[in-house]
Design a protein that fits this description.
The complex is a heterodimer of chains A (95) and B (594). Chain A has 95 residues and is mostly helical. Chain A is 74% helix and 0% strand. Chain A has one domain (8-83). In chain B, the strands form seven sheets. In chain B, strands 2, 3, 4, 5, 10, 18 and 19 form a seven-stranded mixed sheet that branches. Chain B has a five-stranded antiparallel sheet with strand order 12-11-23-22-21, with helices on both faces. A three-stranded antiparallel sheet of chain B has the order 1-8-9. Chain B has three domains: 2-48; 63-233, Penicillin-binding protein 2a (Domain 2) (Alpha-Beta Complex), CATH 3.90.1310.10; 237-280 and 293-585, Beta-lactamase, CATH 3.40.710. The chains are: A mainly alpha (95), B alpha+beta (594). At the A-B interface, α1 and α2 of A face β3 and α10 of B.
Chain lengths: 95, 594
């Protein structure tokens, strides 16, 4: 069997081509992997955002409940001993 | 390996080769048959039995479940939350297939105390398990603490899913307007029912994959749910609160059966408050049928003397009377079709303003008898009686108004004083709003905007309808002001403000005696304030006040005053200094209040 003898230039070109192929394949694989990883990350962030939105809604509803006028009046009257103003106690700006 | 060599078997080479070929052929034949057999079986499985097996797998491993969309939020006119859906845990059971039925039921019974399951709940779950369902709700929409307790038990097959639950942060506030929803967040009454399609949104769907032990290992949303739209009401949380509080106080003080009050802005028709007592907490929907009735729009009653506004309007509009005409009320009663109709006292001679101010039945019947029946009927219709106001709330009553051809000899006199006609509180308020708007009908509204888009602006694109002349309305305003200053409505007078209004005291029909009762009354007051540019109009109705005082002027007018004075302060409508001085120095003569 006769082996062709490659020149140094040809060997360098071959190595370079192989290296380029490996680099491109590696980049491609990294790209795919990164895409998938980011996809998971986005999914996690979306879930987290949704959870936080729901939490905000819950807190707004809770705030509305805590500021309910019945509760505010009860606190004002019983804890702070506030009473309705008498007629002479109200000063009207445009009077 | 030597034994298979020809020499080892003492066979000649050609015989040996022949033997090997024969065995090879047999082996190849068997292998071919085997491969064909497998191939046929594969075709059988993949083609002919495929659908059946797929269905079995889908049944065992997949669940397609609806995702309830998030229901829109209901706000008051200032953006305060009145109703909102928030996610809460629901508990369900996916029975492990390897577990016998008895063990499955044992798991359910372990939750009986923690979740407060009723016998009906247990029976429902049992029935589903017996029918081999792969899913059964144990308890829906529980609080977070209860869900944590159940999670801590670590029961096999018990899982959790979040579902939206309607939450009414102000509990009883505006309950009759808001209404309520069922367990699936479907509107059942009030705005929740009237705008159910708008609020509800569209359902989504989720695919859940389970392993052989029925454990959920993958889920995918197949169809995203579409959230419902938010609704902004014309209701003002603060005014609604004031109205409900004062109404409750009045019912308890007067030992009335029920009461209702509506506060509106006459110039726009916006309802600022609509209260009914008894109220209910929509968080614990459904209430009792008695509590659920929105009496402002669902209860018809004979309006009585508040209807004299319409009679006076018809008389003035049709020029049947003039302001200087004298009506003899000195007898204190008038015979109509053989039976007397009485005043609460003898008034002597009265003009039309006097008849309205003192709420004389005798005088008003004489006024009514001067009006052409058809013209009177047309005026009553023009004021909106006998048909729904068109408010965006379900089950509004239209009231009852008979056409003149069905009237008896008693009908015209009876109608003149607000009998033989039934109306809702909202219809009576709408009639007074026509006076407050100087003869223009502006329909009542309760929904301000849907998802930020104004509903009122759309409705206001059509010009208001004139029902009576401005002149007639102005005359009536002056008369109604007299009602509060020196007539039956003095208890509605507010220091520093001009108030116009009319009292009403209706005798109810006793269902046992089948005639008007002397003990059962409906007391009402309807009016607006300030007269020059009305900021609010209001009606207050109390059913069967049990104390010695039961007249509208004694029972309902003070409630009007209490609510109005607080609402005017809240709306920053200042009193008039000149009026205040005059009022303080010249306290109006308080006659026997009616």
């Amino acid at each position: 069997m006769v082996h062709k003898k490659y020149t140094k230039k040809e060997i360098a070109a071959g190595v370079l081509a192989s290296l380029m192929t490996i680099i491109i394949l590696t980049f491609y694989l990294w790209h795919i992997t990164e895409n998938i990883r980011l996809g998971y990350e986005i999914g996690r962030c979306e879930n987290s955002l949704q959870t936080l939105r729901e939490e905000v809604k819950k807190l707004e509803a809770k705030k509305a409940s805590l500021l309910s006028l019945e509760r505010v009046e009860k606190t004002a009257r019983e804890k702070l001993n506030l009473t309705e103003p008498k007629e002479g106690q109200i000063i009207y700006e445009d009077f | 390996m030597r034994i298979f060599e020809p020499k080892a078997m003492n066979l000649p080479t050609d015989v040996y080769q022949k033997k090997v070929r024969k065995r090879t052929r047999i082996l190849a034949f068997l292998l071919t048959v085997w491969v064909i057999g497998i191939f046929i079986r594969l075709i059988d499985l993949q083609v002919f039995l495929h659908a059946g097996f797929k269905a079995q797998v889908v049944k065992q491993n997949q669940d397609r479940t609806k995702i309830l969309p998030e229901r829109g939020t209901i706000y008051d006119r200032n953006g305060k939350i009145l109703a909102r859906s928030i996610p809460v845990p629901s508990i369900f059971y996916s029975p492990p297939s390897e577990e016998p039925f008895e063990l499955q039921m044992k798991t359910i019974l372990r939750l009986e105390a923690t979740l407060g399951l009723s016998a009906k709940d247990i029976e429902r779950i049992k029935s589903r398990l017996q029918k081999k369902f792969s899913f059964a709700w144990i308890k829906r929409k529980v609080d977070v603490d209860t869900a944590q307790q159940v999670k801590a038990l670590g029961l096999n097959g018990v899982s959790f899913r979040e579902e939206p639950k309607r939450f009414y942060p102000q509990a009883k506030l505006a309950a009759h307007v808001l209404g309520g929803v069922d367990i699936d967040d479907k509107g059942q009454s009030g705005i929740e029912l009237a705008y159910d399609q708008v609020l509800r949104g569209k359902e989504g769907e989720v695919l859940i994959l389970r392993d052989v032990k029925r454990r959920e290992y993958y889920s995918e949303v197949l169809k995203e749910p579409q959230s419902g739209k938010d609704i902004t009401l014309t209701i003002d949380e603060n005014i609604q609160y004031i109205a409900q509080r004062e109404l409750e106080k009045a019912v308890l003080e007067n030992r009335a059966n029920w009461a209702t009050a509506i506060v509106s802005r006459p110039d726009s028709g916006e309802i600022l408050a609509m209260a009914s007592y008894p109220a209910f907490d929509p968080n614990a929907y459904p209430p009792s049928p008695e509590q659920e009735i929105n009496r402002a729009i669902r209860y018809n009653f004979e309006p009585g003397s508040t209807f004299k506004i319409v009679t006076a309007s018809a008389a003035l509009e049709n020029r049947a009377v003039s302001l200087n005409d004298i009506f003899d009320c000195s007898e204190g009663s008038i015979a109509i079709a053989g039976s007397p109709i009485r005043d609460h006292k003898k008034f002597g001679l009265l003009t039309l303003p006097g008849v309205v101010a003192h709420s004389s039945n005798v005088g008003m019947i004489q006024v009514g008898l001067r009006i052409d029946p058809d013209a009177f009927y047309r005026t009553i219709q023009a004021f909106g009686f006998g048909r729904k106001t068109g408010l965006d709330l379900p089950a509004e009553e239209s009231g009852l108004l008979m056409p003149p051809k069905k009237w008896s000899r008693r009908s015209l006199p009876a109608l003149s004083i607000g009998y033989e006609i039934s109306a809702t509180a909202l219809q009576v308020l709408q009639a007074v709003n026509i006076i407050a708007n100087r003869g223009l009908l502006i329909a009542p509204k309760i929904v301000g905007a849907i998802e930020g888009s104004s509903v009122i602006a759309q409705k206001e694109s059509t010009p208001p309808d004139r029902k009576i002349s401005e002149k007639t309305a102005d005359t009536l305003i002056k008369i109604l002001e007299q009602v509060v200053l020196e007539g039956t409505g003095q208890a509605a007078w507010i220091n520093g403000y001009t108030v116009a209004g009319k009292t009403g005291t209706t005798q109810k029909i006793d269902p046992e005696l089948k005639r008007y009762s002397s003990f059962k009354h409906i007391a009402s007051f309807v009016g607006f304030v300030p007269v020059e540019k009305p900021a609010i109009s209001m009606i207050v109705v109390l059913d069967e006040p049990q104390k010695a005082e039961y007249y509208g002027g004694q029972v309902a007018a003070p409630v009007f005053r209490e609510i109005s004075s607080q609402v005017l302060r809240y709306l920053r409508v200042s009193p008039q200094k000149s009026l205040m001085k005059a009022a303080l120095t010249a306290e109006p003569g308080r006659e026997g209040e009616r």
